[in-house]
Amino acid sequence: MSRYNADRVVQVSVNKTPSFSYNNLSCNGTTVAYVHKTEVITFNETAGTGSTNVKETVLKPRLPESKVIQVKWCHLSGRDYLVVGSGAGLVIYDDSVSSSIFVMELSSQDVPFPDPEASFVRGITAIPSTNHICAGSSTGYVFAFKVNKDSIELDRTIKPHEDDDGSATSAMTGIENWGVAAFDSGAIQLYDADKDFQVAARFPGSAPCTSLCITGGCIVAGYTTGQIKLYNLTSKVLFAEIGAHTRAISAINAHPDLSQFVSVGEDSIINVWHISTSVTTDESKSSTTEGSDNKVSILFTAKATDSLFTGVTFSRNGSSHLLTSSYDQKKITVFTHR
After folding, report:
1. What is the DSSP string of 119-155?
2. SS3 for 32?
3. What integer pLDDT is reported at residue 290 of this predicted model?
């Protein structure tokens, strides 16, 4: 049962407003990060959920100045990395966020970017099984970076599918050996990192996919139409389509421990969802297996008046609090969980 209450929120004041970019909020249990124009703003997560005032840190990526598109925490081998994608390239920081440990300029890559002014990195995820950080781009190429103990290197560049050539990567997510990329064409592609990032499945689409997460054994995808689609990760079939929002979905995030996810949209609505999976017993084989009868239910919904959501994330500090960012508002709203 959900223990959120629309009347029980904390408004955390910030000095710089979140940019209008989808999925514009990330946290790792210690530090919250979001994008403001050409900068990344961070503050202490515990301080933010317990107080209305926080001390912010401003990061300027060590790249030619350009608009920052996305910032995301990635967890690999017990360490956290803050990954920043911009119009000029990608920067990776250590968990202290005090210094950058890897920088890649798009102009240095042997990849076609016909319009340098419209180039960017967007869609960031970790692949824990193989210790990769993956990032998409404005031309649909996906960069896979191998994270070693003392170094990070570009391991491979994955070409876009022929049907997506020229279509930008819009979002990425990952779990275990799986990486998932969405494109402005609406297509979603599933990669198996254990098999040299071979394409394991492809799901076509007709509207741009803005957001992705994986939870409850399912790929969850949000679209500009306000729809949410859920694909079973094992059977690789679509099992649910939900008219979740009346306008574009601007962010989706999975709960770190439970089979739950949260969605926010341009309609100012926040929804928390639960995925339940049936268990079937094959008596002839004396075994119990996870069935394909997934069900989705809504646990909590609320409307934030005059808030154009740009990001949402579950807290990673064990509290299950929900943090949200809104365009042109000097605050981060926390829906507390009790």
Report:
1. --EEEEEEEGGGTEEEEEETTS-EEEEEE-SS-EEEE
2. strand
3. 46
User: Under 8 Å CB-to-CB from 5, ≥6 apart: which residues?
Assistant: 335, 336, 338
CATH 2.130.10.10 fits 9-335, yes or no: yes
Name which of 91, 86, 54 is nearest 70 in CA terms.
86
Residues 317-332 as b/e (b if ≥16 CB within 10 A, e otherwise) read: eebbbbbbbbbebebb
Q: Name the phi and psi angles at 232, rounded to 5.
A: -70, 125
- Which is it for the CA torsion 297, 303, 308, 314, positive or negative? negative
Per the listing, tokens 């741009």 go with 208
Q: Where are the domains of the chain?
A: 9-335
Q: pLDDT tens digits, residue range 143-183?
A: 999 999 999 999 999 999 988 877 999 999 999 999 999 99
- Is residue 266 within 8 Å of 231, Cβ to Cβ? no
pTM of the model: 0.94
**Nearest Cα residue to 336 out of 321, 323, 324:** 321
Closest listed residue to residue 143, CA positions, set 130, 154, 128, 127: 154
Tokens of 233: 């990760």
335 with 324: CB under 8 angstroms?
yes
Mean pLDDT by 10 residues, the chain (338 residues): 87 96 97 98 79 84 96 97 98 94 94 88 98 97 96 96 88 98 96 98 96 97 98 95 98 97 98 84 45 84 96 95 97 94
Calpha distance 33→56 (Å, rounded): 10
